[in-house]
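Appendix B, record 7
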Amino acid sequence: MEINISTNAEELGKAAGTAAADLIRAAIAEKRIANIILATGTSQFHTLNQLISDPGIDWSKVVMFHLDEYIGLSITHPASFRKYLQDRFILKVDPLKDTYLINGETDPRGECERLGTLITQHPIDVALVGIGENCHLAFNDPPADFETEEPYLVVDLDESCRQQQLGEGWFQSLEDVPRKAISMSVKQIMKSKYIICSVPDERKAAAVKNTVEQRVSNLYPASILQTHPDCTLYLDKASAASLHSINK
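Structure tokens (predicted):
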């Protein structure tokens, strides 16, 4: 795992988005297609802004998957990750080759099977991910399942995860936050050739510390990124503030 520390969230996003764009262009040059995973949430605002503004990406050769979606939440709800990606990415770039969004309004098991079949046919070149305040990776809350080979899972969201969604302003009350979601599995994320992990903000400092400095454990799901052959963690000074190796 490499660590890149920027001054602030905006600079972090520029660095992460530029790196992602370079990798996408390289994949297209090598094999005429790039299969990517996009994350959502406040941590990805600046990264996605940079990615969509970076020149020279032939989006008609890009296939997109995403990490997770709430079960039972309408695509029109402000917290819907499908809506997030449509508003912040899909409608702002030229049409993609294919877009595979998670539909949380249909049968969850059937949706997991549908997406699992699709993603196994599209080996991922570049995954953009984030880390939750409880160190979750996608919606794999602790203790995360590190063993399943299933590409997508139905998961229960723990209270700290749901509190984070409330705190970020996506919902009006904790009761409004769904208790279940469809999430890409940890093993599926780890199959990505390159992982770019964007984590700004002081409230993520403890999770960053656990990701980097704890032993690899499903109690700290994002710690698994330590074992990936090509993962870069993009931080700002606030999110890196608790790292002993940086601040000793």
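Remarks on this record: The chain has one domain: 2-243. Residues 205 and 241 are 6 Å apart (CA to CA).
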